[in-house]
Amino acid sequence: MGLVLWIAPIIAVMLSRVVNNIKSLHIISICTSFIMLLAAGITTKSVMLYETLTYKIFGDAFFIDAVSIIVLDIVIIIGFLVSIYSVGYLNEKLRHNLIKYKKIKFYYSMMYIFMFSMVLALTVNNIGIMWVAIEATTLATAFLVGFNNDENALEAAWKYVIICSVGIAMALVGIIFLHLASINVVSNENALQWNLLYDNAKDLNGSVLRLSFIFILIGFGTKAGLAPMHTWLPDAHSQAPSPISALLSGALLNSAMYATIRILAIVNKNLNDSAFTGRLMIAFGILSIAAAAVFIMTQKDYKRLLAYSSIEHMGIITLAFGIFTPLSIFAGFLHMINHSFTKTMLFLASGNILQKYNTRRISKVRGLLKMLPISGAAFLIGLLAISGTPPFSIFVSEINMFLSIFSAKYYVLGGVFILLLAFIFVGIVITLFKVFFGEPAIDSNIRRGETNKPGAAVLIVLLIIISVTGLYMPKLLKNLITSAQMIIIGG
Amino acid sequence: MEFFFDLLSVLVLLSSFVLVSNKKITAYIKTFQIQSALIALIAGIMGWSIAVNEDKYDILIICVIIIALKVIFIPHLLYKTYGNIEYRVEKDFFMNIPIIVLICCGLVVFSYFSVSNIGSLTGFHINHQVVNSLSVVLIGFFFMISRKKAIGQIIGYLVIENGIFVTAMFSTNGMPFIVDIGIFIDMITAVMIMGIMVTRINKKFESINIDKLSKLKG
Questions:
Q1: Strands (E), A152-269
Q2: Which of A111, B74, B104, B162 has the largest count of CB atoms under 10 Å?
Q3: Taking CB atoms and an 8 Å cutoff, what residues of chain A touch B175?
């Protein structure tokens, strides 16, 4: 069933090249993502039963375990929601004559190439192929970031392609050193297979492995948007069409983080200690949170604000894996899930706002709740959730983070962390309360009410997800995270 | 055999020095072409000896792909992109060339010291081939930040890829075959996308100087 995950998006790309009317394009997209959703569900079930999922015909190429299934499910669920949202979004753009029919075709084929490369990155065993797939995500989204084709979008797309391609080249150097570290341990035919590297981690060459980890952290860290390599992220995420921003923020950042975590597990098992990797990851994590805090406090553009908030949350996840206690790893995975859903909801809501008000500036948006009752409410609640207000899910994982930091005896770090989160909370709440109240400008000829009906439905679903998981964690999810935690920590 | 590799790795390093001291875009492309030819030669020699000894033809195939892509196709693509852009004489670099060359010498020394700290890479003597090829990667990075034109950045990216490829060749006899193929596919797509973007940037901004791309801040 896992193979459907590879085949479905490819078929979608081919069909959307052939098909010649908009309605069937939408239908193909929704059907494909629904099939992928079903396949992911079945795959999750078999991972729960057998722990790892491989297919004989591919040798060891196809490999899914608890770590990959968590990220994979995030990617596919978000992909499904985004594909529904896109229908309303694109129709609305078409109605205003902002895009032509050809662009929609292009949009869908690129989106499914993007989905395919993310799924590929998450389901392969070979770290080299994983790299190739993650680089392919950059290339697939390059033109999606530049979708609007104006000066700003072009600038963002250029920065995105250059910084990410070069950054990820660093990771390739790291992977070469990883290969070098394993040269007499793993045979040449099986070089770079993750499960073999992980099983034989103790025999790898420690000093080369350390060098390799530095390169890999910088490389995949660029793609995951860690400061100080984050400079492409706010541009790309704010200029891309909103559904694509949601995919970039909710799904792609996690995939890059996933690759880092995989290698982190090998390195820590080899060194028998997390001091070396921990120091690096904690430094990058706290730096990202601090950088994001500064820019969130002074932000004037709401999509950029969300992008900086993504940097913050990637920082938190990096910090969690840097501390590397069972509790912190649990919190890290949980935070990954919670951040993805909350941020997707926010970006999708911001897409409706952008289409309604036609501006990205916070100061120009007034009376949001009257203009867009559902998107406005989702945006308001989402902002409160993303800044860590109870009872939403982000609050739960952040509390777990605090607990894990203090129980690992990083008192100063914990203090700084709480302080920075408080700054971010103030920054988000103060800037955005302006948006919700006040009267919408009367002279404007914008109609009140939601225009993107499927989008509004998606927002409601996401709202339910983030509120429910804040209060109650399904046993299934807990089991999955626990087994992922066991894999990473090497229990 | 080792002698040839030493010689070739030094020549690759030298070609990247030639690259940073070039002034014209056409000269960049030419130098990149020469460097790729040298790399194809390395892959050819290594592939030949492996084919004779172990009866495996992976690296020879890679060598053919390099000649087709990096020596013929990509330079051709870049010339074409450059041809689409209006010709305009502009100063292309942020620093003087002698200073750039000096900094690159510093980068070589830096990679020598970083590699000499790693036990298994050194053994009895430091592996100079790896030092040289890592220096090519670093010089490629520096080349990217020292040039203003968008095409210069594409060349920088390609030089980094070249450096990485040679590092893989010298340290581990190349990556697994399928990974290498994947990397080539990615690289060729990346260069095509960047080429299209350069043309668009030229249309929108009427220049390919990337310091014009400075609207998005904060």
A1: none
A2: A111
A3: 128, 175-176, 179, 191-192
Read off the pLDDT band of A442 (50, 70, 90): low
What part of A 185-244 touches B (C-beta under 8 Å)? 188-189, 191-192, 205, 207-208, 211, 234-235, 238-239
**In Å, how far are A217, A391, B188 from B44, measured between CA atoms?**
33, 63, 21
Q: How far apart are CA A28 and CA A25, in angstroms?
A: 5
Radius of gyration of chain A (CA): 22
Q: Across residues A446-454, what is the average pLDDT?
A: 80
Structure confidence at residue A29 (pLDDT): 95
Q: Taking the domains of chain B in order of start, what are their residue ranges?
A: 2-210
> Considering its fold, how many domains does chain A have in total?
1
- Across the range A255-276, mean pLDDT stands at 93
Neighbour-count burial of A20, counting CB atoms closer than 10 A to its CB (0-12 exposed, 13-18 middle, 19+ buried): exposed
CB atoms within 10 A of CB A426: 14
CA separation for the pair A53, B203 (Å, rounded): 50
- Strands (E) across B77-138 are located at none
ipTM: 0.94
pLDDT at A282 over 60: yes
Tell me if residue B149 falls in helix, strand or coil: strand
Least confident of A267-276, A298-307, A435-444, A461-470: A435-444
% of chain A surpassing 70 pLDDT: 98
The parent domain of residue A440 ranges over 2-489
A489 Cβ contact list (under 8 Å, min separation 6): A265, A324, A326, A329
Q: CA B3 to CA B5: how far, in whole Å? A: 5
